[in-house]
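User: Please check token order:
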Amino acid sequence: MSGVFSFPNPVNEYAARVTAGLVVVLAVVTIVAGQWWLYAALAVGFALRVAGGPRYSPFGRLAVHVIAPRLGPAKLVPGPPKRFAQTIGLVFSGVALVLFLAGDHLAARIVLGLLVVAALLESAAGVCLGCIVFGWLQRRGVIPASVCEACAGVNTAPPTLTVPQGQQQK
């Protein structure tokens, strides 16, 4: 059962950035269209990525198998900070969905706007805010070092891992 909910480690940073770009597009469309099912689709997408990385997520599969390979060789980074970042995205998109369903459309749009900023930073600049928070929590002992030994000392983004050529994210 643990394999069903496993998250890849390492992950291709380019695939993560492409996925973030797709999230930006869907979130902006959701803000503009204001439809509950778009809020739900965004939250479900995050839930699928938290559960199994790109395995269950349409955005993840598109990024890993179609778009990222066209960007060049994989740049591998630790998976745990990326899963943590996806979990933060799930919380934000879930809160936005609940706010929207409760009738507070402005608050829902503001929460999604914050998500857009974070996803845009990841996509355009490679700055993963969730990864930064992960590193901060790890340095303070909230997240044990055993969760991601390759993440020790992470300040702004997960370090690039040295992995033999030919190994791909599954």
